[in-house]
């Protein structure tokens, strides 16, 4: 790989050595099918159950409420589709800022199942109004699912899910939060939050790709979307990804054990990056609450560069820097992302370039210096081109 500096950790993170080692060991030694009744199968099953107990302990929930899946996308689909098909949900309240996997599942519920969908309109900071949520809940007696992400993957804004949970409880609505960007990075105690469903993806916190889980509150009576076996408490058929689950468990262990140290490091790196960018690129702005360490994820800094350059990702890549303009799913697209369209004015969309800089505990100040220098070169060229027009 020619990448010298990796600043796309919101898209995916490098897998930790300890995680790789644990996975290789599981592949080598625990190849039994967890559904087999012989010892080889039962050893593999025991590994999975051990990870389930650990995950449940970190979130302060019951092990039976953790359902391993193939990814965050599958977890969100399972939850939304089953709510509509099996729990009698006729109405979904969501927002236009959701990840595509939630947005598409909600749209599908509307188009194919006739579900009513209400989108809460974010303000120019990307904030969802809790008053608007309450009004939307008051407006109908239909069985409702509220689906609002915990932290936005493009701008990093964090939603107060405790408050959202309280409001949902008051109106008897189910509450689902896409927690893909927060599990592994924040200390979450679901026993203190009125949340029914959440999702997780291991590759967002230095685990492998292709494994995640859905948190499903025991009392919710969800049914499977993938049929064909009794695995995962009959909620997700298919032979389990044993080594992937082991990798997820190891990655979560490492993140939770080192949570404060990692968080402090990334907070410092994020502030350093914002300060360097301000010094180097006059007129730069930061989207949403991106610069506020309390209101936004410390892993994400969403910048708005004061010039138009749709090729910036490519130009930075040519200098050995891996970075996205928005979410991995929307970067490369000709149109601005839905998130940017929602929070930026027309003239900003016309004359600026969003850049999502996302960090891990491996990111160093030297990485940031290299990136800022490369960006400055691009900025100067853009400025010269602009004056020559
Ligand atoms: N939800 C959010 C907020 C994400 O950032 C992502 C990944 O980009 C997903 C869901 C999808 O997760 P996965 O890549 O595991 O399908």
TrEMBL record:
Alphabetical UniProt keywords: Iron, Iron-sulfur, Metal-binding, Pyridoxal phosphate, Transferase
Signal peptide: none
Keyword Disulfide bond assigned: no
One GO MF term attached to the UniProt entry: cysteine desulfurase activity
Catalytic function, reaction form: (sulfur carrier)-H + L-cysteine = (sulfur carrier)-SH + L-alanine
Cofactor(s) this protein cannot do without: pyridoxal 5'-phosphate
Domain (Aminotransferase class V): residue spans on this chain: 5-371
InterPro entries in the record: Aminotrans_V_dom (IPR000192), Aminotrans_V_PyrdxlP_BS (IPR020578), Cysteine_dSase (IPR016454), PyrdxlP-dep_Trfase (IPR015424), PyrdxlP-dep_Trfase_major (IPR015421), PyrdxlP-dep_Trfase_small (IPR015422)
One Pfam family in the UniProt entry: Aminotran_5
E.C. numbers: 2.8.1.7
Superkingdom, taxonomy of origin: Bacteria
Enzyme class: transferase
Family statement drawn from the similarity comment of this UniProt entry: Belongs to the class-V pyridoxal-phosphate-dependent aminotransferase family. NifS/IscS subfamily.
Designated name of the protein: cysteine desulfurase
Native source organism of the sequence: Chryseobacterium taklimakanense
UniProt gene name: iscS
